[in-house]
UniProtKB/TrEMBL annotation:
Pfam families documented for this protein: SET
InterPro entries referenced in this protein's UniProt entry, alphabetically: SET_dom (IPR001214), SET_dom_sf (IPR046341), SET_domain_protein (IPR053185)
Protein name: SET domain-containing protein 5
Record domain SET: where: 107-262
Database matches in PROSITE patterns: SET
Region Disordered: start-end pairs: 1-27
Signal peptide (residue range): none
Length: 409
């Protein structure tokens, strides 16, 4: 990718030493037009990932004060250049601790061009089990979901952040993909919009708080391409400022590692429309490439999976209410498991459904079925995890299962 030309006037004090903080002047510009505010408010309030039903753009702009800050870590020389609301920055520790999970030993992935794709992707370098950690990474850059300063263009802030990083880090950033046409935005803005991953930070309370969702750039994990039936998921840990890439099902060496860019329960046409709008590509994953006759069935399955928990009685209600058929709760969860496996959507509470089925058979004192589904629930967890060991103990002695026989008693 060719080098981008840095704008000549980034916000002041952008060049800084390790861990230093530079504060920006408060926004004193007039609020945007009412029509723009109304449109932004509707978009933010309706976005389930942002969880901000009372968002008010005008109040948000008025109450933001920002600073540039480099985050340093206790276990590595890497740094993260951030633009943060000063209240959010005040909640960060002086040094970030080590991630809760250790990076895997040996090379678990490679970044290369796929056989049927024009861009780069992430591919497994070894077999990865369910729940296996593929990568653990700190972000290179973190910015708010909305930068509420009108005194500078968006590209100016990204320029200032890159000035706070090493030349090697900047070069790696410039190699990331840019799906946005030049007529839409500057190259730096395009790289940020193409590769940023949503992460959640602690924010202070009060009127018009900062949005918890921020945008992070991860040099390796941002390379993961999309699938409507992904084999991996992101797992963010705000305490250590680290993102883990976790396998949702077994991944064989050489397989591409994929994640979901858009909600997987919406219809194929909606997924494709969102991907085209946000990332400028038409999805051709195996789940979108199905014949038209199977597409409507797939859409119906995904809609059903989105609503499966809403009308289910609780486990306790099922145990205590003898008018509910014995298999009713179990059958709903079994159907969900079948749909998830058919659609490649283990990200949608697959483990919880396995647990619920095992609990149901345990409550019915069905040793054979309990052991079968408890083993499946165990196998969906990392083999060395505490949860897997607990499940193994219950399989060895079902009578020790905490809700054993509840339905019959």
């Amino acid at each position: 990718m060719p080098s981008a030309t840095m704008p000549s006037s980034p916000p002041r004090d952008s060049k800084a030493a390790s861990g230093s903080t530079s504060y920006l002047k408060r926004n004193r510009c007039r609020p945007p037009p009412l029509e723009f505010c109304a449109e932004m408010n509707a978009n933010i309030r309706s976005n389930p990932n942002l969880d901000s039903p009372y968002f008010d753009l005008a109040g948000h702009l008025e109450n933001r004060a920002y600073c540039f800050h480099n985050i340093v870590y206790a276990d590595t020389f890497d740094q993260t250049a951030t633009l943060l609301d000063v209240g959010v920055k005040s909640l960060l520790p002086d040094f970030m601790p080590s991630p809760p999970v250790s990076p895997p030993r040996g090379a678990t992935f490679s970044i290369r061009r796929g056989d049927d794709k024009h861009g780069l992707g992430m591919f497994a370098a070894q077999n990865v089990p369910v729940g296996g950690i593929i990568a653990v990474e700190r972000p290179m850059i973190v910015v708010p979901y909305i930068i509420a300063l009108q005194s500078h263009a968006e590209v100016d802030f990204y320029t200032a952040l890159l000035h706070r990083l090493s030349p090697d880090a900047v070069a790696n950033f410039m190699e990331l993909a840019n799906c946005k046409p030049a007529a839409e935005c500057d190259m730096l803005v395009g790289i940020m919009r193409t590769n940023s991953i949503g992460i959640t930070l602690n924010v202070p309370g009060g009127p018009h708080p900062e949005l918890p969702t921020h945008r992070g750039i991860f040099l390796n994990i941002s390379r993961c391409n999309h699938s409507c039936g992904p084999n991996a998921r992101w797992q963010w840990d705000a305490a250590s400022f680290s993102l883990s890439l976790v396998a949702l099902r077994p991944i064989e060496a050489g397989d591409e590692i994929t994640v979901a860019y858009v909600p997987p329960t919406i219809s194929r046409s909606e997924r494709r429309a969102q991907l085209k709008s946000l990332y400028n590509f038409s999805c051709r994953c195996e789940f979108c490439a199905r014949p038209a006759a199977l597409t409507s069935r797939s859409d119906a399955a995904r809609t059903e999976l989105e609503t499966v928990w809403k009308e289910l009685p609780s486990f306790e209600t099922w145990c205590l209410n003898s008018t509910i058929p014995q298999q009713a709760l179990i059958d709903v969860h079994k159907r969900a498991v079948a749909l998830i496996e058919a659609e490649g959507l283990e990200m949608l509470d697959y483990g919880k459904h396995l647990d619920a089925i095992a609990m149901g058979y345990g409550a019915l004192r069905d040793v054979e079925q309990f052991c079968e589904w408890a083993c499946r629930a165990r196998d969906f967890r990392p083999p060395d995890s505490d949860e897997a060991r607990v499940l193994e103990g219950w399989v060895a002695d079902p009578e020790t299962f905490p809700v054993w026989g509840w339905r019959r008693t």
